[in-house]
Each structure stands twice: as structure tokens, then as C-alpha cells.
Amino acid sequence: MQTATDRAVSQEKEERDAHRRALRVLQERGFEPMVGGAYALKTHTGIWRDTKDLDLFLRKDRIRGALAALKSEGFRTELTDPLWIAKAFQGPYFIDLIFSSGNGIATVDEHWRRRAPTCDVLGLQALVVPAEEIIWSKAFIQERERFDGADIHHLLRCKGAQLDWDHLLGRFGEKHWEILLVHLITFRFAFPSEKEQVPDWVMRELIGRMQGREAEPAPSERVCRGTLLSRQQYLHETNREGYRDARELETPDWTGDDAYPVKYPNGSGGEDDAHRGGR
Fold first, then answer.
1. Which domains does the chain show, CATH number per domain?
2. Does the predicted model carry a pTM greater than 0.85?
3. Which of 9, 87, 129, 273 is the most exposed place for a label (fewest CB within 10 A)?
4. What's the pLDDT score for residue 131?
């Protein structure tokens, strides 16, 4: 008679086999998937976190082909949200195929592949998402139920001095550098003894930008950029107070949260989802 422990071990093996099979299919078909999530965090920091899915990052122009390849091998597939994610399922197990951050900002491009290291994942030699791109995409994840700032701190603690900071500053650009500065400040708070992991010129550059911004007048247009950080936490301002949702201005092809509509609880007086009735 199979014990609960035996069943758990069997299920874990089945899950790993499903993940390995999906990774191998995409590799053999030439899609060059890059492994993210827990496997990437372990590669860069040595920290292991148990995971129930496999995050594979691909360029957006390869997603439909990747889904077709997996479907031909018996996986059930879906384009979950055309802005950033698709999924493949084998029984109860699934793989996330990610091509951008959830806000549509941190889009996978050729720089990810060019900079990706290779390591062993599930017994296969696989490309792993570069540390700089992990920081870029995770910096925007600041939901009430999920905040990825600690992962950024782990990456900075372990690899900060080795990062390509010019590339990372370029990723955040002129529109989003404040988010990077916030994470660097909280890293200093979390690990004061690891200050040297962030070059002093980076801090001087970003603090100088902030000082320069203080001398500028506030923008006249009422825009809420909090929606780039959280789908849910700024709905009152966008749905009720008349603030423009920044995703409408900063996210190419954004037409609303098609797969994850977020509404006020029943009886609270709100009517519309995060894109204000299809604006």
C-alpha cells in the first residue's frame, strides 16, 4: 500500500518530468528558452525555494510557435494574457511561458539571450535569465500579496559588484529609474554591511537625478503610475478619483487586464475593472 510520503515523492517526480519534458521540447525545437523563477534565483544566489511551476522566458515573437510545439507533444496550452504570459499544462502540472513583466514594461528581447549564463536545470544544460533582467522585471512586482524586493536584495548581496550597471540603468531608463533607486535604498537598509555591492557612482547618479527632479514643478496631468506596480492597490484612484492609468500611456498594446480583471468587492460601490470599462 502506497503511503502519503510515497505519493508525494511520486508526484514530485511526475512534476519534474513534466517540466523537464517541456524544457527539452522547446530546446530541441530551437526556441532557446531561458529558465527563470526559483531555478534562476538558485543559480545566481545559491538560495533554493521550492517551486510548483517552471518559468521559461522567451521573446514574444516565439510564443505562438512554442505553444504549437508543446501542443504537438501533448501539452494543453493557452495564451493566458497577450501582454505577458502563456501557459502549458501536462495533467496537474504547468509551465509558465513569460515574455514580459505583468505590466508590459520589462519585455524579453535579444539582450536577455545574449547575456544568459548556462547551467544544469532538471538534468539539462539550460539558459538562465541574467541577473540584471531579473532585477528589472521583479522591481515592478509590488502587489499586496506578493513583493519581490527581497529577491532583488538577494541578487544584489550576491552579485551586485559583478552586475553590468550601465545596462541595468539603461533598462530602467528615464521613466522608471526611481523604482531602481527605491530598491537600492531598501537594500542598504536590509544589508548595511554589503554597501560595496552597489557602486557609489550608481547611487550618486540616481540621487543626483532625484535632487534635480525636486527642482521641477509637479506634472499637471493627474496620472497614477502605481498601476505599473500593482493591478489592485490603486483602483480607487483610477476608477473613482479620475486619475489616468499609467499603463495606458507607458505600456505598448495594453488594453486592460483581459485575463485578470480586478473589481471592487460586491457592495463597495465600484463598477469598473482596472482599465475603467475598456478605456
1. 4-129 (3.30.460.40), 149-214 (no CATH), 219-279 (no CATH)
2. yes
3. 9
4. 98
